[in-house]
Amino acid sequence: MNVELSIIIPAYNEAGRLPATLAALAGYFATKPRRVEVIVVDDGSSDGTGELALPAPEAAPGVSWRMLRNPENRGKGYSVRRGMLEAQGQRLLFTDADLSAPIEELPKLEAALELGADIAIGSRSRQELIKAHQSRFRENAGRVFNRMVRLILGLPFVDTQCGFKLFSRASAQAIFPQQRIERWGFDPELLFLARRYGFRVQEIPVVWAHAAGAKIRLGRDSVRMFADVLAIRRHAHAYPARAAAAAARR
Questions:
Q1: Which of 144, 147, 226, 249 could serve as a FRET partner for 160 with CA atoms 20 to 30 Å apart?
Q2: Number of helices followed by number of strands (H, E) in the chain
Q3: What is the pTM of this model?
Q4: How many domains are contained in the chain?
Q5: Chain segment 152-169, per-residue pLDDT in tens
Q6: Domain at 243, CATH number
Q7: Are 166 and 91 spatial neighbours (Cβ–Cβ below 8 Å)?
Q8: Domain containing 156: what range?
């Protein structure tokens, strides 16, 4: 099957929220004549996420469904990378298990690729598009982190952490094999590699709503993410050069 779009969903202890997400995806694609694969990557969950029933084929005839299972918890970055490297689509989207950015926002990202971008990243930069906010403390912490990312890595993006990013197949095949960070700090690494390898990245404001039950622990994981950003800068020379990445694009 020639897959037009792959959707990768990293999931850790998401048995409560994932069924609604899968139903929303099935409903969205049920009337769209396109070939889509949805890949859920269960990251060593202990709540039965990996045993959840996937939608029946007739729920969305053009969609295939797969569940990949990590034998232990490895992190969101690892799970996204695993799904991306197994995906067959010409375009590859990763999205959060709670669909904080609804799938109806996908056409905005696809339009950016149609106009020449290699990667389109969802952004929570437009306050009027935020339907449910995080706590003020979390929002301020996120802004501080993004400023730090721009300063240390030289990235121009307002929001590096939104879990709604679409890649062309060529960009995914060049970037994800080089990804090293396996937990929360992987998004800046992907964008750092994208710019290093000359891919065109466009930031797209999307509708977004905070969902209760986030797995990130602000204190501990913020420290780890800061360490990850420093590691990207410190080891920047160790990533393959652009020539090697260009070979992967062919």
A1: 249
A2: 8, 9
A3: 0.90
A4: 1
A5: 999 999 999 899 999 999
A6: 3.90.550.10
A7: yes
A8: 5-249
